[in-house]
Amino acid sequence: MADNLIALGVSVDLCGVVGADGGQAWLFETLQHLGIGSSGILVDPKRPTSQKSRVMISKQQVLRVDRERKDPIDKDLCTALLEKASSLLEKADVLVLSDYLKGVLDGHLCQELIKRAKAQHKIILCDPKGRDYSKYAHADLITPNKKEAQMATGVEINDDDSLLQALSFFKDKLQITTPLITLSEQGMAFLDQDLHKIPTIAKEVYDVSGAGDTVIAALAFCLGLGYPIKQACHFANAAAAVVVAKVGSARATYAEVLDFLQKHYHKGQKVLDKATLCALLKAMHPPKIIFTNGCFDLLHRGHVEYLQKAKALGGLLVVGLNSDSSVRRLKGDTRPICDQDARAFVLAGLECVDFVVLFEEDTPLELIKALKPHVLVKGADYAGKEVVGSSLVKEVVLIDFVNGHSTTNTLEKIQNLTHN
């Protein structure tokens, strides 16, 4: 799960218990390589480091061998782990309790961590195991699969009524804010005021190893950014679809998830009209939409670096492109040099650009109102000036231009060559 979070661009600190063996050395080395914090991992020389070995034949897992101990860790180690986790929790946005019933996350430790996290207004997610879910009480979200939910609630889930009954058990009996059940090929379902079912969007399934970890990691990522649970579920479904199409315990990067969503909902097409793009974004539910706009006539290095920096802010980049008539009103009858179809085609060819949408107005205000981006990007020359649409977004980012590169400079060079 930590690896999945790193792939999404999240800073992660891991807490747990390992043995004093070769597995411990490998784990710490791997965590360091991935950039995952390991200060919360304690060593118990009386236990082995838990290891799972999978046997694969023709891209299918046929056997798994586990080396582990499941008896509870001793009280002193539990107390030390609680203090370590509590210290790390202070700088975190989200607490994820990933329970594999290996003797670490007992009822006392879970409830103490949940209590401390709630006192600090942190988001709490639990990936549960076993029959007794009371140790996850008062968490914000739990993610059992269908089999696990049936075991914990005693409800056989075979239709929407029984699904609602199982989810209601978690919500009413355990005060889970948003109980969620993953339903394999049927997607997932969650309960807030109403029952919501999110269908799966996986096309190819090679290996389901790690899919559950991917789902809760993606949910933690989205909820940590402040996005609604339904939007988070759509993103998590896409992340799971990316992972199950790979072999082994894979992970899904943020770029892979957005690319999957784009291809799934609109077959990879980048240049869209406003109505189509609005409908697509509503279906995709991207956690972060970045918007910038311009004429982008005679695309040059300055444009490309500007757009690359905008994309590097970490989200889906939408470029609003002034139509030909809009450019003429802004820059005169001699512009644009390239027509709107050519300019849109070239922009869409850039890897950093996710979507291009034309607008006829002199400003992109109406487009911004329709698309509802989270971040608005403009050039650094807007410092101290009012940016159109700034009141409609969460953040405005100004990006420096590359010196010596502009459409005006390019046209002047062409004119000088012509005159000479």
Automatic annotation (TrEMBL):
It comes from the Bacteria. Keywords: ATP-binding, Carbohydrate metabolism, Kinase, Multifunctional enzyme, Nucleotide-binding, Nucleotidyltransferase, Transferase. Residues 2-250 form the Carbohydrate kinase PfkB domain. CDD domains: RfaE_like (cd01172). It is an enzyme of class 2 (transferase). Residues 291-382 form the Cytidyltransferase-like domain. Pathway: Bacterial outer membrane biogenesis; LPS core biosynthesis; Nucleotide-sugar biosynthesis; ADP-L-glycero-beta-D-manno-heptose biosynthesis; ADP-L-glycero-beta-D-manno-heptose from D-glycero-beta-D-manno-heptose 7-phosphate: step 1/4; Nucleotide-sugar biosynthesis; ADP-L-glycero-beta-D-manno-heptose biosynthesis; ADP-L-glycero-beta-D-manno-heptose from D-glycero-beta-D-manno-heptose 7-phosphate: step 3/4. Residues 1-269 are annotated as: Ribokinase. The keyword Signal does not apply. Residues 291-420 are annotated as: Cytidylyltransferase. It catalyses: D-glycero-beta-D-manno-heptose 1-phosphate + ATP + H(+) = ADP-D-glycero-beta-D-manno-heptose + diphosphate; D-glycero-beta-D-manno-heptose 7-phosphate + ATP = D-glycero-beta-D-manno-heptose 1,7-bisphosphate + ADP + H(+). InterPro entries: Bifunc_HldE, Carboh/pur_kinase_PfkB_CS, Cyt_trans-like, PfkB_dom, RfaE_dom_I, RfaE_dom_II, Ribokinase-like, Rossmann-like_a/b/a_fold. Its EC number is 2.7.1.167, 2.7.7.70. Coiled coil: none annotated. NCBIfam families: cyt_tran_rel, rfaE_dom_II. HAMAP family: HldE. This is Bifunctional protein HldE. It comes from Helicobacter gastrocanis.
